Amino acid sequence: MEQKTNDHKRMPRRYRKIRVTKLVGSDPVEFEQPQYEVTVPENTRADHLLRLSARVRASAVPVVYRITESNAASHFWIHPSTGILSLVSPLDFEKKKKYELVVEAQAGEESSEARVIVRVEDQNDHAPVFPTSLHETQITEEDDRHLPKTILTQVTATDADAGEFGRLTYRLSGDGVEGSEEESAFAIDPLTGAIRLLRPLDRDPPHGRAQWNLRVTATDGELEAHTDVRVNVKDVNDNAPFFPSRTTTAAVSEDTPKGTVVARMVATDPDDPREGNNARLVYSLEKNVIDESSGSPIFAIDSELGVITTALCCLDREKTQRYVIQVVATDGGGLKGTGTVVVNVDDVNDVPPRFSRPEWTLDVSESLDPDNVLATLTVVDQDVTNDFAYRVVPNSGRGWQMFTVEGRRRGGPGGDLRSLTSLDYEKPIHRKGFRFKVEVTDMGRNGWDDKYHVDGAWVNLRLVDENDNVPTYISRHARLTLPEDTPIGTHLTTFTARDLDGGGQAIRYQVAPASDPGRLFDVDGSGAVRLVGGLDREVADTHSVLVWAVDQGTPPRTATATLSIDVTDVNDNPPFLSEPREVQVTENSEAQLVARVKLGDPDDWRQGHGPPFTISLDPRAPPHVTDSVRVTLDRRGDDGRGVGVVWTRAALDREERPALLVPLVVGDAGWPSLTATVTLTLHVADVNDNPMAPAAKTVTVHTMQRQGTAVPLGRVYVQDPDDWDAASKTYAWSDPQAGFFLDTSSGHLSMAPSTRDGRYELSFKVSDDSQGQFGVKANVTVEVKTMSSDDVKHATPITLAVDPGYLVKAEKPLKENQEPSMESAGSRVWLVTPGVINADHALLYRKSELSNILGVEVKTVGVGTCQEHFVDKVHVPAGTEKRSTADSECENGCWARTVLSSGFSIVDANTSAVVGPRLEVQTGCGCDNSSPSPDTTCTPYTCLNGGRCVSTSTGTECICPHGTWGSHCKVLSRHFEGGGGRGAGGGSMSKGAWAWVPPIPPCAEVHISLEVLSTTKSAALLYSGPEQGTEQKQGNRDLMLLELSQGRPVLLLDLGGGPVTLTLNSSASLADNTWHRIDLIWKDELMEMIVDLCLGSSWDEPPTLASAAQNRTSAPVLPDAHACRGAARLPRNTRVLNTSGVLQVGGLVYPLPALKTEGKSAPRHPPHFRGCIRNLRINGKLVDLGSGVLSSASSPGCPAADCLANHLHCGLHGRQVFT
């Protein structure tokens, strides 16, 4: 039976559970519980255990409690009055585990007894104990028998605790004990403490040790004890001696006596020196050096100490500079180790110095400064510890006092000859030359007095004249005052210079480019300066022209003269419209003053070449202008300069004509007066005075279905003559469609970029509160067509001579009563031709036909040259950045290319609109020789000439057919049939052979090379120039023509400064049915032509394609008469070939434009080429001559080359046949 007393709140929790057994019945005095049980942890100090309570019938009689049995040790005490049983002294579980007390309760004469059982709870109060702090054992190293094996069994501990706290476990730590048994050398039994050896032990360093220290830990789960274990390893002779350094270097003087210590060799043996003779070493020389004369060894060694000494007297460094000997160290067990000693013999100054030659003859430039070394007088001395000294022997010869000899500061032995004063060839005494004697000593014991250690040599020195004088002008400055209409070709002045060097060298004159950026002046070989360009005071009223006089020395020296020119004004500019240039008047308004027009004039007003101005309406103005506008002159306006007063005569109607171009005739006060017609643009501001009408619109969208912003489609259109009332209109869907978005306030429509191809019919309602119109119908048809990004990137731009709106407008022609807009340079249209390579060439070839088909003039085809500023002239959709590059900003060349920009371009013409990806032309300075980035996926443009594109883990790869070359399958040769043949596409435009390839890049340095095989003596090989079939225009005269004339190459080059012809008058013709290579180079105002790389033979055995493609050249040479190489100067400041379109190979489609320098008005047409051309390279890049090339009467490959490769002559049209 279990009960809980009410005293549990006051007692500790460990005493609360009490088991009671009733022993007595109902007596006068009776315990509430006949038996009590309580548990007490051992070692508990004095504490209350429980309270006993007895009932007494006579309540007035007090109860007295006492312990009557089992308390002999007095561990317990009970309070006589309260019955509280207390612990007086600690209990010990290990001595006694349970106490049974008998407690008596007495009230008067009556009493009662109860039994209290006190159980003792065990506590972990004893730590484990090892009998000794150190255990030691010994094993033999490298003993692997009976592994694993027990090496210690007595490493055990005791614990005085009984029960669970007396059970011990063991663990091991220390040397050779790792995380797992596979890696450890020792292990311990966790229950018995026995230590086992798991693998053989190594005693010797570097990885072994003579003593392995372990620690054993015993634990009862809470408390621990430790003891150390020392495992001593007994050595065995298992290590050979070794020298710490395999090679020891020592030094000994060459005059050292016998017995001199050279070095001491000390070997190391890891074995135990206390274990027998395991580490006792004996030294010996295994490979000694033997003296050839005596046959005796040169060195000896002490067998115990390892000290090496010389075994004979006096070494000779000049005979042997170094000895190599081998030392052996042997231990007591016969194991050996070897080391090498390198003995360097130190030098003693015992050999005299000698000059390398007895006499020196020198040619010395007069321009060398005194500090410069004129010559190094080399000295030979077999000794290495020399202290050389040099001197010029006094009074030894002419000019001895002007020179000195000093020891070289670096390098081998020798003396540097220097002059003490400046040398000048122009001084007669110096011009005769010098002769003197020099001496050297290695500073033996007596210095210069020791004649055995002194040697002498003679020096003969002649001065060489140098270009050390700058040309001298007779007059270095001239000033002129010229009117700005001074004729071109006028002689301005002459600067004459002379040069004192070389008896008067030839002098070349040149205008400094930076002082003449406009290229207005030129100077000839006599120094005469002429005007070669037109002066313009309004551009520059002064010029400071620097004229250089450059001699022919190396390096050339330059003198500068200055021509200062003041330019006076000529009345050559009519007045211009200053302000305003555009004005606005509201339609339907009454006649009113529109503007007071002010004029300006760039001429010099101080000379009367300006105001007062006159202004009037042009009498040739069209009737609708004269009927609407009148102009008067206010002579007092603008401070007396004169102002034109413009009035309207009546109300204007914007719907009839949105703008008036008012022609004004203006004149200045010069004599004679200059007049001009200027245009004032009068815009008619719209008033919402017309109602709307339903209308329909068609939008054609070309998209690439890429992610991004919405595609703009233009504005929803309703027919309304008013066009400034957009703000008063509101727009709403009649039937909304997914993927299309409407701005209800502006009417602008857009589309999701991922919209699929197809035709979409959209309907809208348009309202105008001001007109009281609501729900006017407006329908929009959207046609979506997808294009690939690769096709778009290869699109070809063409420029049409028409406004963009005209191209997309449904109603053509424009209204007759519409005021003609200001002249537009045209519109750029990008044509996408999927999969067609060189589409721009085909369009350029059919340019005239294309113009006829379109009914619009095609002005340009392709990107054009980067120098052209057409980007600023043609229409560019809103938001497109304009980019252009000027000649003056790109001295080293420029580039232009098509790029795909973000967003879309839109041309909106009310009833129709066209939307497409935004393309633009980027330009920049420098020569763009970079290769296009490789394709990451296969496209129709990846592989040429039938190559098959395959995708790889790194991108793409072309599987090329036979006869092609390179990663893109280029064809490197082409055959031309000469005259006859039909044009590309079957046309008859050309009657001869030709092929078109990409143009020459506009770079300041160009290198073109090609190889030709032909019997044709006269033919065009390469041409790049102005568009043929048209007259040569000023500013667009650049051209390059390479042709054969009588079998010899002729190069005609014009970089804008005038044509220059270069002809190689070689004795051999290139039309000999063998391969010949021609290289063309131009840079730094010099052009050069080389035949067969000046190898002196033909090119029948060409280098491999890899080497042929390198296309590098050495520095250009000056013009010479060599038969294989020629060069010519180009006009100054000409750097870049500014041509666009194509490079024509093998012939010209049209005759050449007439050249001014040829004195002919009729164009000429060089014959077409008959033969083969291969390995055409432009700035190191091989040009494809394969099937994608636009051509006539030519084909890829060269059949005749196969014959030549096998030493057969089949003729140009022959083909090798295999039988």
UniProtKB/TrEMBL annotation:
Tell me which GO cellular component terms the UniProt record holds.
catenin complex
Q: Which PROSITE patterns does the record match to this protein? A: CADHERIN_1, CADHERIN_2, EGF_1, EGF_3, LAM_G_DOMAIN
Q: Which residues form the EGF-like domain?
A: 934-970
Does the keyword Ribosomal protein feature in the UniProt annotation? no
Give one GO biological process term: cell migration
State the UniProt keywords alphabetically.
Answer: Calcium, Cell adhesion, Disulfide bond, EGF-like domain, Glycoprotein, Membrane, Repeat, Signal, Transmembrane, Transmembrane helix
Q: List the disulfide bonds.
A: C960-C969
Domain Laminin G, which positions? Answer: 984-1198
Instruction: Give this protein's Gene Ontology molecular function annotations.
Output: beta-catenin binding; cadherin binding; calcium ion binding
Tell me where in or outside the cell this protein is found. Membrane
Domain Cadherin stretches: 32-130, 131-243, 244-355, 356-473, 474-577, 577-696, 693-799
Query: According to its record, how does it sit in the membrane?
Result: Single-pass membrane protein
Q: What is this protein called?
A: Neural-cadherin
Q: What is its main location?
A: membrane
